[in-house]
Write a structure and sequence with these properties.
Largest sheet: 6 strands, mixed
Number of strands: 8
Number of helices: 12
Radius of gyration: 20 Å
Helix content: 40-55%
Order of helices and strands: EEHHEEHEHHEEEHHHHHHH
Distance between the termini: 51 Å
Amino acid sequence: TVHLEVLEVAGGRIAGEAEAAGAAGEVLAVEARLLDEVARILNLAERKAAPAPRAPGQETTLAVLYFQNLSPDAKLDPLQVGLTDMLITHLQYRPGIAVVEREELNRILNELKLGLSPLADESQQARVGRMLGAEVMLLGSFLVVGDSLRFDAHLVATDTGLLLQAVSAQGTRDDMEVAVSSLADQVGAALAVGPSTSHESKRLGKTSLEAALHYSRGMLSLNTSGNYQEALQELERCVYLAPENEGALLHLGLAYQNTVRDYEKAAQMFTRILALGPGEGLSLIHISEPTRPY
């Protein structure tokens, strides 16, 4: 059983109390009930800002920031990269949303010397959002306990700092894709945009936590340490475990192409992406430009 009190900072008055109970293996369920109780106490539903109405054809620019690892295992920290990429893959094909590319996010965070660190306060969030040209930011966290995982996130308006919507999803270690898809659906609904018009489910396929970790470590090796051999090994392992994950296939192809100059293997990866469904123009570009830098 977990019991907590919500105190007002100014007067020290108890605004409310929340309590939730569960068995030892129900940590995520207990946390979810506590969050719901705290939201009720704080009247978050009444204090949320409504998304601004959009003109037909007008897009909302969204920045997906790195989710923070709340799990007791620090070895899951690299998952911040994989989870962000999976969400971006889901959201970028939805009409009405223009998602800031992860490369641009990295550039701004590195410029501010933040890396994967959480943003300290609302002013820092607003600054990052403005530099990214984003109207809305998605910030969140993930928690892995046993075979279960949970994502919690909130959409924040960059200009006002007001909460637009809180979203959450649960899944299992065997298939993160279900929880990521649910989270993306909730974000789309909160921003009042339509469902994806592409074959986005084929772009990721069934992706386990283990596969996502290999992908994340591979991308960190490519973009941070420059250890290309380690990156290739990690991405190859991810593709083995998740053969329909477009992100892993794409970046493995680029790594073959631009680091070890193995154009034959690169073409194989890009061809596998094309087999997943129509609209894979990015892969065609890379096939036609074999010397493009990583």
